[in-house]
Amino acid sequence: MARTKQPRAARPAPENRSNDTEPAAAPLSTSPSPATAPAPHDANLHAYRVGPVTLTVAGIAEDSDDDTFDPCFFDEGYSLAAQTAYSVWEGGARLLDFVQRDGDAPGAAIAADLRALLGVDQPGNPVQVVELGSGTGAAGLGLAMLGANVLVTDVPSIVDLLRDNIKRNSSASAVEEKAVSAWTGATSLGLGTAAAQPLNWAIPVAQQLAPNDPRRAQVLVATECTWLQSLIPIFTSTVSQLLAAPMPAKLVPVRGWTVAALHQIAQSQQKWLLWVYKERGTAASESFTTFDGVCRAFAEVGCTVHALHAEPSVEDPGKTIRFCAVTLAGGASQIERN
């Protein structure tokens, strides 16, 4: 039977406190300068500053010839969760804004700790990062531009979009040979590197090790991908599998630490997840999560959530964006040494 193009579903609307409605996909909260903003006809592009340069990501794969049609509509496993990957959610943009703060900016001292653990303050000693549920890749690619070696991941139907966005921001076709800690197939991106591959939370990580083994990550990143109740069991399971895997030994940054939990992570060389969460549900929600509910789910798989910083949402007044570190409870990851 011939395929008939279907219109893309409208973006979810903000949750009404008295109704279990779908959450809104927030636009980027950091505005690009007029000189670098996308032209009006580039409605699917989002741009913002990362250091001295501009990161631009598209919200739809380049091979689609219809802006109203989701090119993955007919893919096996298509779902609402996958459809929202085409939006840039507020948490991703706020993470990039937060990690670049300095001086007297709110949370600047915590941001400096995060930069040290992400390796962006250590030229020549980049950290291997895996972003979970990357969507457009805005957060992960921004961290790469700041100096990390990032593997952006999502379900297979989204990976072409991620690769398009890597190519859109790349200054080279491949990383230099000296970048030995880069992921296989990575491309130079700003001060770091980026590669993309599928990682489906519903499948054991051990069955998804090619071309890169995501278990070799030193840091995991996830921004606003824990909003739907049905995703939480497979998400927390994936996180616990990745945190439990041995990790390569690394240099410990020598510095004064602001956050005790981050100091402990550094000293123990423990794997950890940088988790950004905006609460969209209520205690009565059946579809959408609450912060306490996700924390309980992490505890059930042996993980501890460490609150780092919280600030008001720009896109949804009255709601809060939380920055957290998640570690395995009771000890450090096994260290793999040569």
UniProtKB/TrEMBL annotation:
<feature type="compositionally biased region" description="Low complexity">
    <location>
        <begin position="23"/>
        <end position="40"/>
    </location>
</feature>
<feature type="region of interest" description="Disordered">
    <location>
        <begin position="1"/>
        <end position="42"/>
    </location>
</feature>
<dbReference type="Pfam" id="PF10294">
    <property type="entry name" value="Methyltransf_16"/>
</dbReference>
<dbReference type="InterPro" id="IPR019410">
    <property type="entry name" value="Methyltransf_16"/>
</dbReference>
<protein>
    <submittedName>
        <fullName>Uncharacterized protein</fullName>
    </submittedName>
</protein>
<dbReference type="InterPro" id="IPR029063">
    <property type="entry name" value="SAM-dependent_MTases_sf"/>
</dbReference>
